[in-house]
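Subject: design request, 53 residues
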């Protein structure tokens, strides 16, 4: 997905979302993990396993 597409889902503009890619608020991290069907640990690079066990 593009930054613009994700920004629309998160109800923000693309420039704000680009800042989130560097430092993401926890609530939005949860929404993104749900959107991509992955665990939070996978989203932030703490594991290579996409889904929690």
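Subject: RE: design request

Done. Sequence follows.
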């Amino acid at each position: 997905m593009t930054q613009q597409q994700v920004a629309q889902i998160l109800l923000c503009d693309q420039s704000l979302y680009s800042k989130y890619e560097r430092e993401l608020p926890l609530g939005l991290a949860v929404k993104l993990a749900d959107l991509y069907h992955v665990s939070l640990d996978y989203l932030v690079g703490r594991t290579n396993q996409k889904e929690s066990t």
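Residues 3-43 form one domain.
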